[in-house]
């Protein structure tokens, strides 16, 4: 009778945290979410080849515009002035979309394999892209050729930039750290402190280190300075009994410098690395959370709830598969760090 149990209870509630739903939802799973650095415009890229933008207003979301790629879109980023969106993915090219002026997208970058990650570097006025072709490429969007191509040891899986710090995570658990004041030389290369594949990275707000998340329900907190290595630690998360899920997203709060994790268990949590505490565990959604992000002032946490293929094609039913994008308004108690109780004890 186990296989009939779901019929009695009805469909699982996709929104147990009573978050605000962004509509209309994409027709396939969401691969990235990014807020404008200047205003509450949210962009989602998805496996239905679309890049969509909504204006987020108090109590409502207004679809603003969308563009198409020829293949699934995997990543997106905004220009620092909030005028323009870049997107890339399985068609191996980057489109630059002057969204706010209503302009048409143009191709500004290309790789030899799908583009997994990208970031706009305001201080260099360049776009950096990371691909499964095992390169990073830097682009001046007015030129057809990259201004620099950096070889990576393996396929790019994750990227974080907070100038001058950039960290790239590749296959085989390589983490390559760059000082963007001299981007053509590796500052340091390490093996991930986590024993399984890297899924996501987030630079510390003070640029003194980074977080790394893996497919094995674990996060590493890593400092760059050799004298600070004793402060490094890892912790388990996104686990349920013997079930271990991927950590898919790491986002620092722009004001309080605490951080969120989101995972394939359908949960998102808020943490304080300095006091080593979990500040808030949110209710688990019935589907994975593949991506998430804060808006520019940290008053909105956006997250997608949809199938992420972590259990293969046999667990995907296109007839019933749904995609949701939700907005959570964090309470201060959820995202503001607090000193550890009894600080004389274990650090």
TrEMBL record:
<dbReference type="InterPro" id="IPR015943">
    <property type="entry name" value="WD40/YVTN_repeat-like_dom_sf"/>
</dbReference>
<keyword id="KW-0853">WD repeat</keyword>
<dbReference type="InterPro" id="IPR036322">
    <property type="entry name" value="WD40_repeat_dom_sf"/>
</dbReference>
<dbReference type="InterPro" id="IPR001680">
    <property type="entry name" value="WD40_rpt"/>
</dbReference>
<feature type="repeat" description="WD">
    <location>
        <begin position="108"/>
        <end position="149"/>
    </location>
</feature>
<keyword id="KW-0677">Repeat</keyword>
<feature type="repeat" description="WD">
    <location>
        <begin position="23"/>
        <end position="56"/>
    </location>
</feature>
<dbReference type="Pfam" id="PF00400">
    <property type="entry name" value="WD40"/>
</dbReference>
<protein>
    <submittedName>
        <fullName>Protein RAE1 isoform X2</fullName>
    </submittedName>
</protein>
<feature type="repeat" description="WD">
    <location>
        <begin position="66"/>
        <end position="107"/>
    </location>
</feature>
<feature type="repeat" description="WD">
    <location>
        <begin position="247"/>
        <end position="281"/>
    </location>
</feature>
<dbReference type="InterPro" id="IPR020472">
    <property type="entry name" value="WD40_PAC1"/>
</dbReference>
């Amino acid at each position: 009778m186990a296989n009939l149990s779901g019929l009695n209870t009805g469909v699982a509630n996709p929104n147990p945290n009573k978050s605000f739903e962004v509509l209309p939802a994409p027709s396939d799973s969401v691969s990235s979410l990014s807020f404008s650095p200047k205003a509450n415009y949210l962009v989602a890229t998805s496996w239905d080849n679309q890049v969509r933008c909504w204006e987020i207003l108090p109590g409502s979301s207004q679809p603003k515009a969308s563009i198409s790629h020829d293949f699934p879109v995997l990543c997106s980023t905004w220009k620092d002035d909030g005028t323009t969106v870049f997107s890339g993915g399985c068609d191996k090219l980057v489109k630059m979309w002057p969204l706010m002026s209503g302009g048409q997208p143009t191709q500004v970058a290309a790789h030899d394999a799908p583009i997994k990650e990208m970031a706009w570097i305001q201080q260099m006025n360049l776009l950096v892209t990371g691909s499964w072709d095992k390169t990073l490429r830097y682009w001046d969007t007015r030129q057809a050729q990259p201004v620099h191509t950096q070889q990576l040891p393996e396929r790019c899986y994750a990227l974080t930039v907070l100038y001058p710090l950039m960290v790239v995570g590749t296959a085989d658990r390589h983490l390559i750290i760059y000082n963007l004041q001299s981007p053509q030389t590796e500052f340091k290369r390490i093996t991930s402190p986590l024993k399984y594949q890297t899924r996501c990275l987030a630079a510390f707000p003070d640029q003194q280190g980074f977080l790394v998340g893996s497919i094995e329900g674990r996060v590493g907190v890593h400092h760059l300075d050799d004298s600070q290595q004793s402060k490094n630690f890892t912790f388990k998360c996104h686990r349920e009994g013997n079930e271990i899920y991927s950590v898919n997203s790491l986002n620092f709060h722009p004001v309080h410098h605490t951080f969120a994790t989101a995972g394939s268990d359908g949960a998102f949590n808020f943490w304080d690395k300095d006091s080593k505490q979990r500040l808030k565990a949110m209710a688990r959604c019935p589907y994975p959370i593949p991506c998430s992000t804060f808006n520019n002032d940290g008053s909105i946490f956006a997250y997608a709830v949809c199938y992420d293929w972590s259990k293969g094609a046999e667990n995907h039913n296109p007839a019933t598969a749904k995609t949701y994008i939700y907005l959570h308004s964090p309470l201060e108690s959820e995202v503001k760090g607090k000193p550890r109780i009894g600080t004389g004890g274990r650090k």
